[in-house]
Amino acid sequence: MERKLRYLEKEIKKDGIPMLDTGENPEAPQPREMIDLEATFEKLENELREVNQNAEALKRNFLELTELKHILRKTQVFFDEHEGGLNPTESMTRALISDDSVARQTPSGPVQLGFVAGVILRERIPAFERMLWRACRGNVFLRQAEIESPLEDPSNGDNVFKSVFIIFFQGDQLKTRVKKICEGFRATLYPCPEAPADRREMAMGVMTRLEDLNTVLGQTQDHRHRVLVAAAKNIKNWFVKVRKIKAIYHTLNLFNLDVTQKCLIAECWVPVLDLETIQLALRRGTERSGSSVPPILNRMESFEDPPTYNRTNKFTHGFQVLIDSYGVATYREVNPAPYTIITFPFLFAVMFGDLGHGMIMAMFGAWMVLREKPLAAKKSDSEIWNIFFGGRYIILLMGMFSMYTGFVYNDTFSKSLNVFGSYWSVNYNASTVMSNKDLQLNPSTTDYQQYPYPIGLDPVWQVAENKIIFMNAYKMKISIIIGVFQMLFGVCLSLWNFIYFQRRISIYCEFIPQIIFLCFLFLYMVILMFVKWTNYGPSTGDVKTGPYCAPSILITFINMVLFKTNSAPAVCDAYMYSGQQAFQMLLVVVALICIPWMLFAKPALILRNKRKMHVPLNSNHHNHAMGSENGDAEAALSQAQVPPPLPPHKEEEEHDVGELFIHQGIHTIEYVLGSVSHTASYLRLWALSLAHAQLSEVLWNMVLRNGLMFEGWVGGIALYITFAIWATLTIAILVLMEGLSAFLHCLRLHWVEFQSKFYQGMGYHFQPFSFEAILDSAAQGPEE
After folding, report:
1. 141 — phi, psi (to 5°)?
2. Which pLDDT score is estimated for 698?
3. DSSP 679
4. Exposed / middle / buried, residue 421 (Cβ in 10 Å: 0-12, 13-18, 19+)
5. Transmembrane ranges (predicted)?
């Protein structure tokens, strides 16, 4: 039935008839209605195929008569070239026979030539001429004329250009050879009388038959059009009905018959929260079908891993797609999508921070959100547009967060907003300006009022010469702080997984050493940043706590890991607080102890428990425990209610012990080295933020600023042109390209740096039976 509908749809589209889409969603047809539909489709298909066959035969006949008409017309021109009652073939004879041959003609008269006439495709004429010349050794005479108007090919409806030809030859042997060549080039030969009266009579008959054929063809096309117009009114609803009933029968084919052969049994996954809804649906179906046997719904135990089902709405769907692109969550593990709703646009905004660019992005996202219903109804085929529209809420949040970070950076198209007034008083006189033309901000001078700007950066930094030095130090530290806290949060989420799945060994042998290692090294480095910010400054009045003696956090951290003492000028303290060196050595030692703790503790406990229970390491329980990162041998061992088997072979046990330690060693090395590399990876927040700000400033200075240099009406024209260029480059480079770059870097930070701490992503999607999903997939990619 669907094949017949696709055939009808193809014919309707071929004629350009619009198909009525009322937006209705009819129910799946009952069996009786389905029989009627099938009869209707069968009748329509047979009628349409018969009409098409008749039309094709008529068109083929029409083409032959049209070609014959052109042959009679063009050959008449050839023959009319000879005047005075001469034989029409006499000039051809002279062309083919030399003068000596004519002188030796028999008394019976000149030699008569035969000829054939036909039609051939225009592009085959040159090759056709060459083949005739070579095969007949030049003993033929060919005349050809183009048919000006294209002819319709009845088999496919394409327009083709053809030419009429007439070939003169002498003798039956050449006639046979010429006909074979014509057949090889797929030329169509037609009878052409030699006498002018016969040609005229045939032409009149051809014209009469063409007029009759035109009338019949018109009636056939009208009948075909009426059939297709009637089908076009209902074909959309028919498609919905057929696809629904097809999906129902396809699902019913997955059912099993019970032993009595009277009942169907189905096993499926069902969300627990929807059990009552499914019971009501089954009861409603029983009532509507008039069945006297109620359906039975029982929960059953399964050894298969259930599918993962995360309920989403139009707001959270886009963020869940980002997570599922990395990997579908393992059943019942922590889903990072709710946290990603905030962290993803925030980290994007840290890299993209610009009030103006963020406003453009937010306006685009808001336009798609406010007009989502009419935009969704259009169902565009553009893949790029569908990606943008599917992530409209992500784009809206990224734009709004970028506006916030742009306000904090005080950066709007590379310019600052003086909202609260600057807390710097730049007291430059003429001599200062002449000797030092660049504005250098130093908080230790009287130019600073010793009160910070209420929100974000002071606008005077935008014009300061040492802006980049200050912004680099600020954004670099902010990036590390954000990264360490996000990684700590990811490790804490792994505790949630371990508690839910009752994996106590993983808590003691993985979570605790991981959190200690991360806190004692990298969280301590973050704390040192805050200590430096609070204890060192220009307003303390003490040299030891002034800018000159402020230590480098990076150098301090390197010396801490290498157990080296800090060096400082004579007037400065080497350490930020008393007892810092001993405390830092203690932190490093404890962090180093965590490495063998993560490496050996869990395998040792698993081996001890296995030997106590006499369970071989290659048993199913061990495979279940080691089959995934979140597997816990303790949970498997506690459920092992089986008789103790024979002890394994020694070589086999050693082999499994080696695999166990290798498996744990890989994860330990990955975490330890990943903690360092992931912390450094968060510096991309600083790097992309710096690059975005500098590109924005370069674009302003090199493009728009030039339009502001002119005065008068020339300045208006120059500003109009430069603004157009600046706006185009801003949208194309700073919003689209830089936005895509920041999006991809932000995606990497979530997938690798954040989710690797707790997210396994080894599950598979729950795909419920849904008419809507079936119809949408059929509309996007119809089956062939």
Report:
1. -125, 120
2. 93
3. H
4. exposed
5. 346-370, 390-409, 478-499, 511-533, 583-601, 723-747
